[in-house]
Amino acid sequence: MKNILTLTLIVLSLVACNNSKKSKKTEQSPDLQQHVQKDKPVNLNIDHKAYKMKGMLIAKNTFRIFKGKIESVGSKKGLPAVVDFCHDNAMKLADSLGKTHNVIIKRTSHKLRNPKNKPDADEQAVIDNYLVKQEKQERMEPVIMTDGEGYVHFYAPIKLKDKCLQCHGQPGKDIHEEVYKVIRAKYPNDKATGFKTGELRGIWDIKFLDKK
Q: What are the beta bridge partners of residue 37?
């Protein structure tokens, strides 16, 4: 009887180990990628952890530089000038930083300010996934996926911070009338207002140009 009990415990331990390995494999091969790209060639052999780390570093560095530029302009010329700066320089700055890291840096959203940042199908799927998680109050994690051409993409949520309400909050409440006039003049089809602190503002899409 004792031998049978010992054997049973060993079998259960082996099953538990196998299930643990399967869980890790699933975590490294996100269901989102399989869902979004079921008709595209998918490379599941990439190092997801390494790309997440690189993507997060690039996103943080880009945000830090953007933040520094915006704060500098705002302190010297005021918030209306920040809107002008973003309109004229945001995409150029992202392109310049992208070349430094051999990537393409894009920010996109479900509520666009600049129509040139419109999400593609994969980006929209990631946004929709994050919005569901936001509704359920679940954690939004960075996502690594390959596109139809085999390039690796890092996607991560951009959440609204308190200071961002001055340009993305409620007009007449968070956004000063003078600032809102400039926003409407620069972006006639602006949809990027009405946000609250902590909500999903959009996503980072960092495309690595070293194709795997």
A: none
Residue 126: the pLDDT is 97
Predicted structure pTM score: 0.79
Decide if 119 contacts 109 (C-beta within 8 A): yes
Report how far apart, in Å, the C-alpha atoms of 51 and of each of 31, 46, 48, 210 are.
17, 8, 5, 11
Tens of pLDDT, residue by residue over 106-131, are 999 999 999 999 999 999 999 999 99
